[in-house]
Amino acid sequence: MTDMYTPIKNKDKYSYVTMCLTITQVTSMEKYIRRLSLVELKLATNNFDTKSEIGYGNMGIMYKAVFPNSMMLAVKRLHKFESFEKEFLLEIQILGRLRNTNLVPLLCFCFEMDKKFLVYKYMSNGTLHQWLHSRPQVEGRKMGWTLRLRIAVGIARGLAWLHHNNALQVAHLKIDSKCILLDDMFEPKISNFGNSIILMTTSGTLSSGCTFVVQHSVPSP
């Protein structure tokens, strides 16, 4: 065991600094959304029972959670074999600050014992991808073209708002049918902001992570 007088190896020192930086950043995100304890999440998901699993993605496993007030939410448990610090913080920074009809609401987060969780409003109709490719065969229901058009318009409105709102302008960069969630009225909700970039901050300055700029141009007469 390393005592206080034993030199820390470079790799261990880097891991320690990275962990501290992440904790500091995550703590600062508490001003946007509530922070939950791991105990609360275990109770709501029956200790992350496999029967509560509702989805699996590149970043983690999604669970259906029922809290003591009977509120049903979705808990994303990030994979242990990847750090996902950047993706985790981006989700909180973007979805914790922005509210729009066509964005999935991020309500809480948890960062405890080196484990990361994101808690969203539960979307009863799953993803658009499921309805286009698998769910109709299972449930015997087809998505008509009128509904498809309404969903497409909702997605376009959400993206336009992300690009031009006055709070935090964002480029998603990875839109597909798997990151479009559908609520009980089939209203589309854009999710998965882990690969996004912030284009413009609230002060009107370009984000340091932005590598491209779309110039405003005056159309020729």
TrEMBL record:
Q: What is its EC number?
A: 2.7.-.-
Q: What is its main location?
A: membrane
Molecular function terms in GO for this entry?
ATP binding; protein tyrosine kinase activity
Q: Which UniProt keywords apply?
A: Kinase, Transferase
What is the annotated signal peptide range for this record? none
Does Kinase appear among the keywords? yes
Q: Origin, by domain of life? A: Eukaryota
One Gene Ontology term, aspect cellular component: membrane
Tell me the compartments it is located in: Membrane
Cell membrane among keywords: no
Please identify the protein, giving its name as recorded: Transferase, protein kinase RLK-Pelle-LRR-Xa family
Q: Which organism is it from?
A: Helianthus annuus (Common sunflower)
